[in-house]
Amino acid sequence: MRPPPSLTRAYHFPLTTGISLLAIAVTAAWASHYDISPLFADPLYLLSQPWRLVTSALPHGSIFHIAFNLEWVWVWGTVVEKNLGRTRYFVILVLLAAGS
How far out from the chain centre does Cα 89 lie? Predict the structure, then answer.
């Protein structure tokens, strides 16, 4: 397996970088006791607010949780984004987030 690219190359992987920054921002907001409940999957709202299936993957429970996940998003995501393209990678991210 190839080593992941340096973080200085983040602009080459806008989808991977963007989803990582979004996860950091949502987790930081949650840790700061900001109300992020509209992002969580809730069966009462799934028909009227289907984005909750995907956005519920953004908050992480601890610094170790988000650090581990972001490490793998960077390692795996940069490969997928480079080899499959942004559109296919986006579809994979949505399917994985909704399925989880």
Answer: 12
